[in-house]
Amino acid sequence: MARTGRRKRDRLRWSKLYTFSCLRPSVQLETSDTGTASLGGPGFSRVVHCNQPRLHYKKPLKYPTNYISTTKYNIITFLPKAIFEQFRRVANLYFLMAAILSLTPVAPFSAVSMIAPLAFVVGLSMAKEALEDWRRFMQDMKVNSRKVSVHRSDGLFGYKHWEKLRVGDVVKVEKDQFFPADLLLLSSSYEDGICYVETMNLDGETNLKVKRSLEVTLPLDEDEVFKEFKGIIRCEDPNPSLYTFVGNLEYERQVYAIDPTQILLRDSKLRNTQYIYGVVIFTGHDTKVMQNSTDSPSKRSRIERQMDKIIYILFSVLVLISLISSIGFAVNIKYYMHNWWFLQPDDKDNKLYNPKTPAISGLIHLITALILYGYLIPISLYVSIEVVKVVQAMFINQDLQMYDEEAGIPAQARTSNLNEELGQVHTILSDKTGTLTCNQMDFLKCSIAGISYGVGSSEVEMAAAKHMASHSDFAGTSEIEIEPSTPITPVFERVRKSTIKGFSFEDDRLMNGSWTQEQNSGTILMFFRILALCHTAIPELNEETGGFNYEAESPDEGAFLVAAREFGFEFCKRTQSSVFIRERYSPSEGPIEREFKVLNLLEFNSKRKRMSVIVRDESGQTLLLCKGADSIIFERLSKNGRAYEVDTTRHLSEYGEAGLRTLALSYRVLEESEYLAWNAEFVKAKTSIGADREAQLERVAELMEKDLILVGATAVEDKLQRGVPQCIDRLAQAGLKIWVLTGDKMETAINIGYACSLLRQGMKQICLSTAPSDPTQQDAKKIFLLSEQAAKENLSLQMSNALQMVKLERDPHAAFALIIDGKGLTHALQDDLKDRFLELAIECASVICCRVSPKQKALVTRLVKEGVGKTTLAIGDGANDVGMIQEADIGVGISGVEGMQAVMASDFSISQFRFLERLLVVHGHWCYKRIAQMICYFFYKNIAFGLTIFYFEAYAAFSGQSVYDDWYMLLFNVVLTSLPVISLGAFEQDVSSEVCLQFPALYQQGPKNLFFDWSRILGWMGNGLYSSLVLYFLSISIFSSESAFRSDGQTADMAAVGTAMFTCIIWAVNIQIALTMSHFTWIQHLCVWGSIASWYLFLVAYGTASPLISGNAFQILVEALGPASIYWISTLLIAVVCNLPYLVHISYQRACNPLDHHVIQEIKYYKKDLEDHDMWKRERSKARQKTKIGFTARVEAKIRHLKGRLHKKLPSITIQTVS
């Protein structure tokens, strides 16, 4: 399809704007043996026939399709993998063995009664797994079903689903579309073949990357020309490296080198470019983004793994009592069988009752005992947990407090297996871009000629001021009013006047031309011109508003241009060689359009940390305009250019404290002869051939970027997502460690660290890096050859020194922050250094890893997970976060605007980072306590019930006879005690959600495992043992055959004793769960008391059934037990005696050694929070973990600093500190 009518703008060769980004391979390779052999060996064997995808349908060139899958299972693997997952659970393995044994003739129960519950439990769990994986499959289908324009034949393009793409296909990708596979860029809508790419999904960076096609493929710029296009690409095999590519293109009998600047990676997005043509090199799971992902793991919670150990203990007890039972049976058979004439079998060869072979009798009876005492290991536990977790997941999904009204997206528990893990998180590993920030920059403040402008407050300042105000309210007894040295806007929730996107500046001194009245108006004019001229952006006319939209490489650049426009310097046009600015000095005057010729542009990159443009104004004056990091600019200032350095440095420090991103602005006036001489050398370096061309360009640029005159500095607010600083503060108070892993450069990450209060002024920063301090010395080839081992040794030395410094620190308030880049991390993650790196990181209050690849994110997550041994949570929003989300114990995906890859791989998804606070501090806390209490109670009730069977076995000569009716045993776990325990797991609340958020330290009960440690577990087991002894021996004593239990003198038979004992068990265990609950609703009352009532209803219904069905239980309640007062009295007595120790224990604990939630419960019960606000605030201040990050730590550090200054000024005055 021709591009007629839109080529006017496209014919501009924007590549001429760039000095470093668009270096094309300057050497055309000859088709020699050596040239191609290097790309045919191991690791470089891929051959792609361009525009001939059919050649890749058969081996050896058959490559994977573009279909991707993030599911755990497929149709073939579901049954074996899901069954394996189920039988990883020890209890299920035991019940499988019991079900097999139930097929033998010596089983005490029918085979159906053993197999059916197991099949139900396993089937239900597998169905849940299938449902959750089906959701992942549907998400995959959405991605695989996206469409892209593909060359079919004869120069005709048509749309195909992504999954149908094959290697060799030629595709046409249009503006703002994602690339469907890894492509070789052939041409673009720009005449010189450049395009702009956003890689936020890959590396988290929002800056646009410039890609440029090979010169030879530039003519391939129309649909029709692909009719005859053919070529061969020989390149590297699939690998996870995002930043490297080695390959050749054989086209028109010539061989051309391909480097990463020609490669477009899957899941990156085309920006600021109408369309591109590309040929598919890697598809599906061969693409670099998928190579960085890992297989969907099967995650199990710590509680579930610990539960397996409890099952082992109970299984050992089961085997022990079964052995005791079988030995007892063998002894009875040998010594007493001849006296039991009424038990003599008809079959004389019966091995079970043969006194001559007691050992065989004991072994056979062992099978009976293993099945009979199986109630010690509750099969219904797993079903109940699955039901409870599904209900908990529903509560998470339906929580309106985590519903994003703007996006219409709720929170989602994508798997319910890990609910309780949410309450045990120790370390959070977070992405930055799109997770903490929303990729919007606002121009907020500036410093010009040593004067700070901008009266607005950043989000950090407003939140800190609000926190300080609440702090001062609480500390109302202070003897001295403490005032911050820098003013903080007292209006905390105010709406900014400005509604202009990217511009939140407020200061009448600069607006509406008022700057012309300022003393340094000339310097201010230069400041505004630097903003309007020093960039690579392209203006686009907005036909609706009549204004201009700017397609900038970074949000910062866009914010500067918007600010320049609002100050009266509107960037309106760019040509091949000029930039046009409409300057308006006052509202009464019309704009003056000025032309500035762009002579050279030295763009920004992570090594240079600065950008310069050389322009000639209308008067013929040549200027170098430079902006960059303050440390880089200040060291390049001339002696006469430092007039404002001291004041600007102070302002930069204040802006940094406010969480703002800063750049210093400077300029230099050039003599014509000086410029011409430099330009000649610059052109020579730019056209040189060789590996050191970039180093030569760096050296020449350095010659020009010196003797600068400082103008001022900008302060831009990287807009955090709503509530991020407050969320981090609460999570820090909850005792959580927070690491930030980002693909952004170090300066950007540090700025966000300040904005989030992960960093603050006064915090000692430990920066680990292998890069040389002087960028001009970075000869890449020499460094690669000489410094790999040296860099590792240097990094090791840095870590050792830092660790020693941290350990020698004596100031209890001192805080350290560890900042490391991707290259340093490469060495730090090696086996011989990773333990030392982790030790240093643990000692630091916050950790920020910059320039990390997706693979490194996953490796860091694994290091923390395995090294610390505590629960880790990873949170991110892009495809580059998938690896760490899957590697962490819990993965949380942010359902943002940049694709759904992170959500698809996650265990939980939320739409905003701030919802993480409620997900962990509320739902995590509740789910952990609910599941822990539920499991402990489950083991308690099954031990209390199961051991009574064993006691009766001993009483009945280990005959295998159960004291309970089969129906009683079947209904015990399924009906009579299931609903109360499910209600405990689903609805229990020790405190309300509001209190959880007000008292974040309550969360530490989970990471410390207070409710599921071995002392708690063994305590509940001991309680079960005690209850079983009371239940059995009191029941046997009361209903013994030696005494009547009714007024007419009747004694109790086994059915009456079993039914009465079972009644006592039902009452005892249900009263126990009622005592355990802290929060009652009608649901809990219905479940607990309804379960007891259902027991009596069952007895009545079962007793009225035919004796053929009810057997010895016929009319047992109505005629036998009901009329006997001893039955009712004994039930009450035994239930009370069973629960008395627990009641005494909990009463003593609440009175003498209360836990945090006990204190809060009493305060709320007596309504002291409403009557005594000071006490409530005091308790709230106590209920937070001591932390060195977050707003709270920041404010406390500020107050300590101010009080220290006041102590120096007023030594005679005592300042009262309230902790």
From TrEMBL:
- Looking at the record, the residues that make up the P-type ATPase N-terminal domain are 48-115
Would you say which domain of life the source belongs to?
Answer: Eukaryota
User: Could you say which protein family the record assigns here?
Assistant: Belongs to the cation transport ATPase (P-type) (TC 3.A.3) family. Type IV subfamily.
Enumerate the UniProt keywords alphabetically.
ATP-binding, Isopeptide bond, Magnesium, Membrane, Metal-binding, Nucleotide-binding, Translocase, Transmembrane, Transmembrane helix, Ubl conjugation
Protein name per UniProt: Phospholipid-transporting ATPase
Q: Which organism is it from?
A: Rhynchospora pubera
Q: What is the required cofactor set for this protein? A: Mg(2+)
Residues the record lists as binding ATP: D431, K432, T433, E557, F604, K627, R661, T742, G743, D744, R851, K857, N880, D881
How is this protein situated with respect to the membrane? Multi-pass membrane protein
Q: Which residues form a coiled coil?
A: none
Q: Where are the transmembrane segments?
A: 90-108, 114-131, 310-337, 357-376, 938-958, 970-987, 1017-1039, 1054-1074, 1086-1105, 1125-1144
Where does this one sit in the cell?
Answer: Membrane
Q: For the P-type ATPase C-terminal domain, which residue ranges apply?
A: 903-1154
Recall the GO molecular function terms of this protein's record: ATP binding; ATP hydrolysis activity; ATPase-coupled intramembrane lipid transporter activity; magnesium ion binding
Ligand binding (Mg(2+)): D431, T433, D877, D881
Which range is the signal sequence, renumbered to this chain?
Answer: none
InterPro entries attached to this UniProt entry: ATPase_P-typ_cyto_dom_N, ATPase_P-typ_P_site, ATPase_P-typ_TM_dom_sf, ATPase_P-typ_transduc_dom_A_sf, HAD-like_sf, HAD_sf, P-type_ATPase_IV, P-type_ATPase_N
